[in-house]
# Entry
Amino acid sequence: MDETINNSLINKLIEKIITEPLDKLTEIMNLSIRILICIIVIIVIPFITIIMVLCYFSFLIMKKNFDKYDQLINFLKKVGDNETSNYMNYGYWDKPNMTLFDANKRLCKIIGKKGDLKNAKKILDVGCGYGEQDFYWKKKITAKIDAIDISKVSIKKAKKININEDITFDTGNACALNFDDNTYDRVISLESAFHYNPRTDFLKESYRVLNEGGKLVIADILYNDDDNIDIFNVINRNSFEKLFDIPKSNKIGIDEFKKQLEDVGFKVKIEDITDKTFKPYYNYFFKNTCCPDNFMLPSWMYNLLRIGCGFYINTICGGTNGFKYVIAVCEK
# Structure
């Protein structure tokens, strides 16, 4: 009898101390999950949807108004402290409080050092744009620089502002270089080869015009071929490739790119500098850009798009995780 009473008391004690609190905790957890689901359904999903719609709208505007580099430069000049710059690159962000202009000069300095430009006598810059990097390098080196770009507008402006006889600008096709074999000590491609259709033709042409022991120095955008890329970065990457007309053959990762270079005959060293390009660039860009002149939308709407796209790229996409940015030094 006493034993039965004791067991009953123990069971009631266990129920009070353990079972009932666990049941209540379970109820609280279930309620919390329901609340979380409601928040996701009511707030998060619509918010992300609105952000994606804003980004898509921005893509359509960019595609219509800034799909050429001679139009894009005017857009970039509306970024703070970049008003007088003709750079159109992501830059190299490795110091605090850098501006876009600072980062672009830093990228040129890195390219110059890695490519050992000071020991070159003749350099070919392919995809030179407005030649801003060539003017920078010429202050540091003695080599003669030939610079080409497919854009007549870019070359016309570069010629207009050029005051150095050792720099020449001309239009040209990167995939069919109009130069003799074994002509240059260095061939440089600063963030332009991802456009070339196909890029492999440019790699072969670079090898052809280089002297023995010469180097191709290429800073370029590749695909992040990690299988874990999320859907948001895939969407962002697809928009970028359409905006900048990236050929299908150039949608490759680092390993395949290195193989292409080695197949041409180069000895290749590749450095991944992704963490010093996309994320700090976009963080600075969306904080410091303002509405371009003669923009098709009022400034308040532009700012709404700027904030939405900035949140999507910097927060949701982590600063564009769908791409890799590399510098490759390739010796013939």
About this structure: The first strand starts at residue 122 and ends at 126.
